[in-house]
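Readers of this paper often ask what the protein records in our data store actually look like. This encoding replaces a full spatial description with a residue-level series of whole-number codes. For reference, a complete record is included directly beneath this paragraph.
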Amino acid sequence: MSGTGLRLAARSNESAMIFRLFGWSVLAVLAAYLLNNYLTYWQGMPGPEAYVSGDPLAVLQAGLYVVAIALAAGYVQTHRDTPLRVDSRRISDINAFIIRAAFWTVLTVGLADMVISFLRVEGLLEGLVGHQIAGDLGRSQWRGPYVHMPLIAFSIVLAIFTRTLGFPWLALLVVAAELMIVLFRFIFSYEQAFMADLVRFWYAALFLFASAYTLKEEGHVRVDVFYTNFSPRTKGYVNAIGSVVFGIALCWVILVVGMGGKSNIINSPLLSFETTQAGFGLYVKYLMAGFLAVFAVSMMIQFVSYFLDAVADIRGEPGGRDHNVHAIQ
């Protein structure tokens, strides 16, 4: 290759590294934000914004963002020749793991809570576990840490060893839970609050968790007048700009509004293990608030993946997808 060709290839590689650095930095800052949120509101640390006061813990929390960006830069630097589409697939695979863990979580927690609620309604719980534990299971501040959290940890382990995202099964479970309500109500004249809670719990998970997967598979219907006739490069510009300006930005808004303070709409229910007041229902309302965080996080990760894929389209790299499949003109 001539000297000119080598210089052009080097410039092309450097420009790709800039986009890759941006994508991985977004994810690194996201991880640092979530970790700081936990340290601030669950562990009582002062928060990164308090670094101006010179509090060592606050300085440490603020430093997490610097470390996160440095790790992203280090990864990009040590993997200089990684194509954009390879990074896009890696990021999408990370997202798939998060969604798998979320699927197993709602499945195991939903079934366990349904069993506990049924036993409480029928007065069988105390005979099985004793008076003390039966009373504890009636308090969300006990059931959350000692029943739900272990199940969430177990679900994460399951996600490591499984590959299905479980959305068809979750949809089937929603239908089965709704069918159970109909059958028990009209045949056995039996209905309890936990039955409707289970449907809402699983349906909310299906709607919010499947959004990122649908974006990955281009399953969201695209209604347009101009986009279909654009060149692949122009489509890449549209998708890249849209991913950053509308996608990633919106996800940050959701996280900041929902988790920016102790009393915000995501943090407040999670911190108090909030439940519904309808009889012996499921104690999962606080988890449903957490669904919004999972939605925003998974969508942001997928938008970063989508952004890198769009930049690859702009650069004319091979392996692009047909973006017209789901368009309605």
The longest helix spans residues 3-41. The beta strands are 222-223, 327-328.
